[in-house]
Amino acid sequence: MTSKIIGVGNYIPSKTITNLFFDEHHFINKSGESLKESNAVIANKLKDITGIEERRYASDQQVTSDLGLIAAQAAIENSGIDPETLDYIIFAHNFGDVRAGTVQSDAVPSLAARVKHLLRIKNNFCVAYDVLFGCPGWIEGMIQANAFIRSGIAKRCLVIGAETLSRVVDVHDRDSMIYADGAGAAILEMSSDESGIKSHLSASYTLNEKDYLYFGKSYNNDKCQDTKYIKMDGRKIYEFALVNVPDAMKKCFDESGYTIDQLSKIIIHQANEKMDEAIVKRFYQLYDLPMPENIMPMVISKLGNSSVATIPTLLKMILDGELPAHEIKKGDILLFASVGAGMNVNSFVYQF
To answer: What digits encode the pLDDT tens for the residues 203-230?
Structure first.
């Protein structure tokens, strides 16, 4: 007995933010000094490293739970289920609902509870809760939902990943150009056939790595020092990911019982195009193989990094035929993987 995906939905905000948006920004380093390079040069370097040309931002009227609701409704419609039959709603995010023009996070009640309310679900035994696990939050929600189903606690779960990172960035930090908004969702159901989650793995590295991603002060010393923004040590994250993520992916994949030649696609968190490519290359090197062509779909160039939303958003786009170079067929074996704040790493193997 395992669990399979019976419906997927996403929400890609309509507000497109190109790299030209940052032309007038005043970028500062950690020491409070203005960066010497022009913003055009900074944007080109960002594109070369991360692949990001555009990203999407939510409208000023939307918050994270609104994005999650739209993705959830799309997943429910895609599955054809009655939402009253859901046993769990698991909402992965990191910063709650942050309204445009404010800096305060609002996560009480939980975002999952808000979505359940907006879906008008009357079933009191449909349990709604949130997961805070960095960018790997949606995968962790899927792993938890699978555990509920395998144990007999649940038969059907909705897992949402949504974030509005544009609301928690320091506009004086060039890393703010990486982040985006979006939402994705999937419905898992008990399965007795060949399809479903075959193996999974999760890890939290906190001894020395806890603060590679953190909330910190603005680089602009004139701004309110009590206000915190998302910050990261990009070099340390890159080095951490290249060492730990390929090993985790291999351990997870080996536990699935499949052979590497059976792997059809790797759906990896859209964090940084060069980093993701290096991770997948190292993963295949562990099998003494080169990285196959078209094994790793990427949409970060147009959508940026929307944290927990990147993987379900990408999955839905492939299933809907929006990426001509990629398709998922019945029987295909997929490896999902993510890395992010914590530092957390996780993965699962899925047969369609």
So the answer is: 999 999 999 999 988 888 776 677 888 9
pTM across the whole model? 0.95
Distance in angstroms (rounded) separating the CA atoms of residues 133 and 204: 9
Rounded to the nearest 5°, which phi and psi values hold at 291? -70, 125
Cβ neighbours of residue 315 under 8 Å, at least 6 residues apart? 8, 184, 186, 267
Sign of the alpha-carbon torsion through 171, 10, 270, 162: positive
Tracing tokens 């930090």 back to the chain, one arrives at: 173
Q: Name the residue among 193, 159, 131 with its Cα closest to residue 315.
A: 159
Distance CA 294, CA 287 (A): 18
